[in-house]
Structures are given as C-alpha cells and as structure tokens.
Amino acid sequence: MSATSDSSKTHPTIFFIFGGTGDLTSRKLVPALFNLFLDGWMPKHLAIVAMGRTAFTDEQFREELLKDINQFSRRGKADQAKWDVFSKSVYFQVSDINNTATYEEQAARIAKFTQDAGEAPNVIYYLAVAPRFFGTITENLNRHKLAADAERTRIVIEKPFGHDLASAKELNRQLCSIFSERQIYRIDHYLGKETVQNILAFRFANSIFEPLWNRNNIDHVQISVTEQLGVGSRGGYYDEAGAMRDMIQNHILQLLCLVAMEPPVSFQADEVRNRKVDVLNSVRKFSPEDIQRNTVRGQYSKGWIEGKEVPGYREEQGVNPQSNTETFAAIKFFVDNWRWHGVPFYLRTGKRMHQSSSVITIQFKDVPHMIFPSEAVEGWQQNRLIISIQPEMSVRMQVQAKRPGLEMALNPVDMIFDYNGTYTGDTPEAYETLLLDTMLGDQTLFMRGDQVEAAWDLLMPILNAWSGKKSLSFPNYSADSWGPETAEALIARDGFHWFTLPLKNNGHHG
Ligand code: BG6
Q: Yes or no: is domain 7-158 CATH 3.90.1150.10?
C-alpha cells in the first residue's frame, strides 16, 4: 500500500515459490511480479526461484512463463525487451519437498545471492501448494535454519487456512513454533483488491460518512458475492470445502469486518487488524434455532448459461454424485455492539448464479415522514450506498431526485464514483499489492492468526449443523438463477430484497 513506485523502497529479495509449476504461479504470481517490475518496484537484486518436480531448465521454464504472461497478465502480451531483462531473475529449481538436498540448494542460493547483493536479502517463501504440504515444508525450512532471521525471512500462506477451527489452530501452532507472527503472511486476495482497500479510505478519509455509520441511520447491510462460474476443474477440492469455507470464512467475513469495524487509531497493521477481530468477536454466535432461522444453503442443478448447457454440481468432475456440499450460502448475522445493535447483515454467495458480481449495499433508514403524495413517489427507494467491488468498480450513492417535468414526480438516481471514468490506466491486480506488501513487510492486508481463528469459531456451529444434517432439498437452485427461493425468503421476511446492480446486457435491477 505504498504511495509511489520506488525501487529503492524494496530491499534485495529472493522469492522461493513452492508449487512453481502450479496454476497460481503461472496465472497470478509471476504476472504480478512482472508487473511490479514494469512499474519500477523491483529491487536491483532480485531472484524468483520456482520450485517443482518437473525437470525444467531455467530457459525452458522462462519460455513457459512468457506464454502464461502473454495470456494472463492484465497488460497483455509482454514487451520482449523488458521480459528479457526481468526473466534473467527467474530460475527453476527441480526439487522434492521431502528431500534434504532441496533445502541445501536453497541455502546455497541464498548464500550466493547475499554475496552478489552485498547484504542480507529478504527471503520470502511462498507456499503455493496444497495445505497438506505446509508441515513438511516449514519443518524442513526450520531444520535447515532457513527461517532463522525473523527480520528478513517471511512465509506466505495461501488459503484455505485450515478446514475448521481445530485444524486452523493446529496450523497456527505449527507455524508459530517456527515463525513469529510478523513473519507470517496469510493471504486473502480480496484484501488486495483496489475496491476493497477503498472501503477503508472511503470510511475513514471522509468525515461525512462516520456520523451516519451506525444503527441510528442504517437499516441493514448486504454483502453479496455471486459467481457465474461453476466449480470447473476444482471439484475435488470444492466438495470438501463448500461455499462457507471457500468464500464466507475468508473473503466475505473480511468484507463484513471492513464495513463494521470501529475507526482504528492509525493505519498500522495491528491497529487495523485489532479492530477487525473486534468485529468477528461481536458477531452473534448462533444457537441451533438461530441456524434454522438465519441461514440458507443451496446447491446448483444443471441449467443453461449464455446459451450453453452446464452440468449440475453433482455431475461435476471430482464431486460425489450424492454430495451434501453447499454451493450457495446465505446468512443473516447480527453484530452485537453499540454501533450495530439490531442492524441485520445479510451475506450471500453462490456459484453458477445469474450474474458475477460482488456488491456491498448499505441501506439507510427511511425518511421519518413522507411529505410527497403517493403518486409522486412511485419507485420510492430508501437511500443506499452501494460499493461495487467487481466487475463494476464503483461507489454509488442512491438518492431520490425530482424527475424533470411539470409535475412533482420523484425517482431514485445514483451519484456515481466510477473508477474507470475517474482514473486512467490499469488497476493493479490484488496479487501485485499483496506481493509488494510482503516485500515491504506491511501486514495490514494479511490475516492475523487470531483473526482466522475468530472467523472459524463464528462459523463452526453452522458448519457442524450442516454437515450433521444432510439437506434433503439439494439440488435446490438451477444454474443461472439467483439461488434457492429460501434465500429470497430470508431477507423478504424482514421487508427487504437482495439488491443487484444492473450489468451490461443484463436486465436485473434490485
Ligand atoms: C477463491 C475461491 O478464493 O476466490 C474461488 O476459492 C472463487 O472459488 C474465487 O472463485 C473468487 O475470486 P475473485 O477474485 O474471482 O472474486
């Protein structure tokens, strides 16, 4: 989250990417590192060492990466001359994580790099591998004294961080026996998104919102993250996870924290993270009756999306044909503190939904007294602040206005801050922000251990209830719909409805 690009801010750095031949590395990590280089953030002394069992030479691996960059980078096809310079810093280490030689070779690389740079570098271990390998890797790093420098060595952990509270605690215990908390960077890529970072800016860099940001003025909050995609080739992973673990435990609870947190006293990582943990600890824990009343789970059946027939969840590759895993979840939460007492927070997420869009809607209370005749206010809408995270990147304030004409007729209009209209140039991808922050040693946008545990703690009663009682209605929504009808009922019961932003070529509006 640095202000201006300046390669002198980044210290000589060596990245080791475990899982160097995986999708994350080719689609996200290397394009992001290349973009940081193009934007002038990379230090003069840089090495990116991808680790994996495939017998690539450095040259072969670089050629593969170039193809990926051309396909996946936000900047499109790479400038060959710039790629040639950057790719000299990229290496492939043929390695097996169970093998001592792997770690000895890493130690040798670090020693040589240190000599070339003339000072001790930052050493970043990026674990882009399945969680079952975390233990082996971290224990070996420790055994070979590769993580001993608490100032300069860092470890980046991808989600999922645990499968439940007990396993997350165990993983934290394991990591913290080797690394100190300030060395551990737990990724939630939502926190790196521009529009998500902007929530803090919007709330705490403007004086006009804070006086309104509470139970006296806000009716309810919606956080809706819907995806048109199904589970694709990730059925094996997803069937063990489901929407609650895959999206709510991390991304959506993080959004909830950003909306609901108290103002931190400063922008220091721990000040911000303390206030977020407070939110998680204030969310009301559900009793079995609460779960029944305030949660909805769903699973998609087959359907048609944009003229193509798509399979139902139980027909997806890697998925149990009798699966009880939810691909949709909706929850009505309460944040029990002075600011939010009595304000419902409705959360929903689902795959194979009608529209891909992530939107936070803050709905304000209605006017205390209506002075306009009913015929003047058709389509009346309470004020809303709509923070659209993606694909539209905007903040809209929805207000009532007089429609031009001789009669007094009102309708809702949007005052819009639209990123594309306001700023020129590309927006950095979440991974660029997060990788740069890892190099700079800024943990603000990473999850602290206690935060991850608080999020699991909150969800465990629901997860246990759902796994203990098979849903008899699955599948209960068809692909290309807005999820199960019971999710509409969850919010309609309180007199509201789910808000959706109209997309181009897409007629839906809340
Ligand atoms: C990932 C989930 O963390 O986030 C995926 O595992 C999901 O299932 C993805 O599709 C959504 O991320 P984004 O950035 O596309 O909204």
A: no
pLDDT score of 248: 98
pLDDT at residue 4 in the model: 61
Q: What is the CATH number of domain 192-492?
A: 3.30.360.10
392 CB within 6 A, ligand 1:
no
Say if residue 351 carries a ligand binding annotation.
yes
For residue 278, how many other CB atoms are within 10 A of its CB?
17
Q: How confident is the model at residue 179 (pLDDT cuts 50, 70, 90)?
A: very high
> What is the reported pLDDT for 510?
36
The full DSSP string for 416-456 is EEEHHHH--SPPPPHHHHHHHHHHHT--TTSB-HHHHHHHH
Q: Phi first, then psi: give them for residue 431, nearest 5 degrees.
A: -65, -25
Regarding the beta carbon of 429 and ligand 1, being less than 6 Å apart is answered: no
Alpha-carbon distance 117 to 160, whole Å? 35
CA 431 to centroid of ligand 1, rounded, Å: 13
Residue nearest to atom 8 of ligand 1 (CA): 246
188 lines ligand 1 (CB under 6 A): no
Which tens digit of pLDDT belongs to each residue from 348-365? 999 999 999 999 999 999
CB burial of residue 29 (10 Å; 0-12, 13-18, 19+) = buried
Domain ranges (residues) in the chain: 7-158, 192-492
List residues with catalytic annotation: 251
106 Cα to the center of ligand 1, angstroms: 32
Position in ligand 1 atom list of the atom nearest CA 190: 14
CB distance 246 to ligand 1 below 6 Å: yes
